Amino acid sequence: LQGQTPDTKRRREGDTLSVQCPYPAGISDWQTKYWCRRVDQTCQELAWTYDRYRRESEDGKITMEGDTTNKTVSITMTDLKAEDSGTYFCAFKNYNGYGQLRTISLNVFKAHIPGVFQGPSSTQPRSQAPSLSGGNTFLILSVVLLILLVLALIASVTLYVRHYKLLGRTGNREAEDTSDRAEGTAQPGSTGRRGSSQDDSKGPAYFNLDMQSHPSAEDPLYCNVEPSQAHRNPQNVEYAVIAFSQSPRNGRD
């Protein structure tokens, strides 16, 4: 076989290869043309044709058809497999054996199956697999942290609402107890009303006494102060002295 620089063709498994092989005017249309696979520097005949006839190989995967107008031979190989990789050529027979028209170097590689995870191969950069794993780990951790944050926020709001309700109930009870104690501090024979300019915990408390009879200057006057109403710091206790002046009796001063 005469040496000839091959044309390189790359295909995936399952693809189709189409080749056009022109032949010179000195070769008759009726002369048989072959599609060969080079094996040990010889021609392994796969298909053949002449003139305009369309011929197929025994397995039906290779088709050859002549075009006498353009003086070419068309070869089609279907359903390629990885084992189909090799060197092919168009040829015709002469007194020296086979005359090559065109040589093809075919490389058929396996196709990746979509949706199936495959580990790093020789054609895939090894740095991609760790980066994908690290990205998935970061995504999972982010989702877990977000869920924990939402749960913590819900727990905080629940505790705050419970604490607020508890404070409201405690305040109402203290107000009722204070009102009950204040009603028992008035002196017999008089009516007393307890009042405050502000809340008991923020301002001084006082009593308004309505005397039923006019007291004399010698009559004592006092009031009870509940311990809860008295200031804890003695320095802040306020004292008051109440005195009654005698009104004129029978025109005397």
TrEMBL record:
The keyword Transmembrane applies. Residues 1-107 form the Ig-like domain. Residues 171-229 are annotated as: Disordered. The chain crosses the membrane at residues 138-161. Residues 171-183 have a biased composition (Basic and acidic residues). The keyword rRNA-binding does not apply. One of its GO terms (molecular function) is signaling receptor activity. InterPro entries: Ig-like_dom, Ig-like_dom_sf, Ig-like_fold, Ig_sub, Ig_V-set, Immune_rcpt_domain. Pfam families: V-set. This is CLM5 protein. It comes from Edolisoma coerulescens.
